[in-house]
Every structure is written in C-alpha cells, then in structure tokens.
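Narrative summary of target 7.
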Amino acid sequence: MSRGGTLLVLAWVLATGAAPAVADGRATVSGRVLDVHGRPVAGAEVFLYRTADTRRSGDFVSPRTGGDGAYRLVVPPGAYWAVARVRSGERPGPVSSGDRHSGLPESIEGVAGLERTLDLVVASLVEAAESMRKTRPDIVTIEGRVVSGSSPLAGRYMAAAPCGTRPAIPPFLSAWTGPDGRFRLFVSKGCHDLALATTFPPADLRVVRPGLEVTGDVHALEVADEPTR
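Modeled conformation, tokenized:
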C-alpha cells in the first residue's frame, strides 16, 4: 500500500519497549507485520526512513517476512519513521490492486543499545477505505476507467488534489491500472482536480478533470489518455 498522497490513513498497531539488544552502540527495531485480523503476514518488507517523507526509497529495508510475520533491523541510533509494504510486483510508486500498506509512517526513536518493538498492520486500499469510512463520512470513492478511444489502458494511475493546488505528489492516489484500465480512488468530499500519470514520482502528471465537485461516490467515470509511444 499500504498508506496513500499522501495516500489514505490505514490502521496500525504500535507497541514500544526496551530490552538489551546490541553491544556496539547500534539500535534494533523489530516486531511483526500483521493483517487487519491480527494474523502474521509473510512477504512484507519494513522500510525505515530518516525523515517523515516516505515517498522514496527507504534508508533501511528489512528482508521479507516469513510465515511468522517477524522482522528485525539493526540501525544507527536516531529518529526513524517506519512503514510496511507487501507488494505483488516490483513496480515502484502507487500500490497495485493486490498490494497492502501500513499507511501513514509511524515514528520511533532508536536508542543505542536498546531494542524497540514496532508491530505494523497492513491493509489493501479497499480494506483501508472501508475502515476509514466507518469513522470518516467525508471519504468517498471515484471509480472508472482510463481509455484511449474505447480501449482500456494499463500502467496508469489517477491522482486527486484540492482544486487549484499543484503538489509535487497529490494527496490521493489510485493503484496502477491493470489490463481493464479500471481505477478506484478514495478522496475526501469537496472540489478536486483529477490528474493522470504513468510514472512515479509523477513527472508526467497532467490534469484531466479540473474542478470536479465530489459530494458522494462517483461511478463509471471514463478518463481519456493517449497511449505512450
């Protein structure tokens, strides 16, 4: 995931503790990656960042988790922000439909010689949105297809930002489109400029639906784009 322009807030669980770890002045961050039902997740990676900007490669990355969902990273002492991701492919940037993400980065202080425990919960975009909508009625769904003529286009993603703003990375991103060209975008109610991109970071971001007033769920929205040549 995942999560989100930010991408959307996903559920997470955090537990911190201190225990003897390493004797050479480094810090250890360990824990488990879990799903929304509390079950361990295999194949997840935990990324540690030296800043809260997690829309880039991690400064430290754990090996993929095994069946017990456990991970462990030994790092220099300092402040870190952590996210967990489970990717179905290797493409960077927005998640794919089968990916899961732990959401907003969780901060943790790595103290020399101590072990910090951080358990992260990963969810798909759909699971995260369903959880969010229980507590945030302003979250709505925009669904549709990216097409060229009548043909669906894969390898695109939709983005939304409040009307009149042009952030380098919009706060709301869809997953990459598949062969059917379909996308699902979760946004807050209000005025949004919808944009389309084929790269991440979005060097080719282009607005395709400016000034869209979103008051509820939007279905069957078709967005035209020319194939990349």
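Residues 1-23 have pLDDT under 50 and may be disordered.
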